[in-house]
Amino acid sequence: MIGRREFMTLIGGAAAAWPLKARAQQPGRIARIGVLSTANPRSSSFYQSFERRLRDLGHIEGQNIVFEYRNAEGEVDRLPDLAAELVHLNASVIVAATAAATTAVKRATQTIPILVVAVNYDPIAFGYADNLARPGGNIKGLYFQHLELLVKRFGLLKEMMPSIGRVAVFSDSFTTDQLEIVQAANRSVGLELQLLHLQNPPYDFDNAFRITARSGAEAIMVLESAPIFRGRTQIVQLANDNRLPTSFAFREYVEIGGLVSYGVNFSSMYRRAAEYADKILRGTKPADLPIEQSAKFELVINLKTAKAIDLTVPATFLALADEVIE
């Protein structure tokens, strides 16, 4: 008797063997966009941007397109089965953001186009592509290497608070490489770093902030991972309650009351990903599409938050901002 996992593997392999050309959207055919995630993607503003951009391009849900969302709910081990389900549905395109999700889909199909919105990992280093301009295979899309921005973000925190002496750094098991870069960057800056390693998500942010407050840290630099990002509302609230200036990687923190962020605009990345999906649905050969590296970054400051925590932001720093929320 064949178990569910073996059955899904068999039918997934059969679907993966169907000709890629046949997947191009035909007149009157409803295309399926598969989305594989480790969290709930449908509630994410990123995927909402993705859906809106597709709608702008003429892909209307329920008329000529349907979305098939698969959420592993934080359990990475579930990703292979969920990827096989999307392959079995004969998705026209499968979107994957994390390295784990991309790996699961790549193992499930070598023919269905996989659209990556890669954060904090290099598709070439992971063996997903031969090069960016002509990546080969079925993985296309965009990637953003957060590691390249950490030194700049660390420097911006010092520029915003020139007299700062002690900074707490929130990290977890997914941010080891980020932490190493911050520590290396600090050798020329000379701040006292208090390293707080968060363990076993969902993390105990309350305890982390209690330790930070007792230590006399004057600011916090939050390193970025999916579990930390999922706790952004609690982190922002605790930072403001403790009147601690906090630096983040993404504007989504600042939009809900965080102080400052420097990084890529995820919504823009997902809108661009939708344009990739549109091209594939209209028949562009995936082999002709490159993998784009995001090159536009933004500094966002919440001046209302700065006033609430009694922080005076230098005018020279405000002049650097791409957006000031008041």
CATH A-level architecture of the largest domain: 3-Layer(aba) Sandwich
How many strands in all? 13
pLDDT < 50 stretches:
1-24
What is the percentage of strand-forming residues? 15-25%
Strand order of the largest sheet: 7-6-8-9-10-12-13
What Rg, in angstroms, do the CA atoms define?
21 Å
Helices and strands, in order, run as HEHEHEHEEHEHEHEHHEHEHEEHHE
What is the average per-residue confidence, as pLDDT, rounded to a whole number? 87
CATH class type of the largest domain? Alpha Beta
Query: Which oligomeric state applies?
Result: single chain
Q: How would you sum up this structure, described in words?
A:
The protein is an alpha/beta fold and 326 residues long. The chain is built from 13 helices and 13 strands. The chain has two domains: 4-145 and 267-295, Rossmann fold; 148-264 and 298-325, Rossmann fold. The protein has helices at residues 4-16, 45-56, 79-88, 99-108, 150-160, 176-186, 205-215, 226-230, 232-241, 251-255, 266-281, 303-308, 315-318; strands at residues 31-37, 65-71, 93-96, 114-119, 139-144, 166-171, 192-197, 219-222, 246-248, 260-264, 291-293, 297-302, 323-325. Strands 7-6-8-9-10-12-13 form a seven-stranded mixed β-sheet, with helices on both faces. The chain has a six-stranded parallel β-sheet with strand order 2-1-3-4-5-11, sandwiched between helices. α2 (45-56) links the parallel β1 (31-37) and β2. α5 crosses α6.
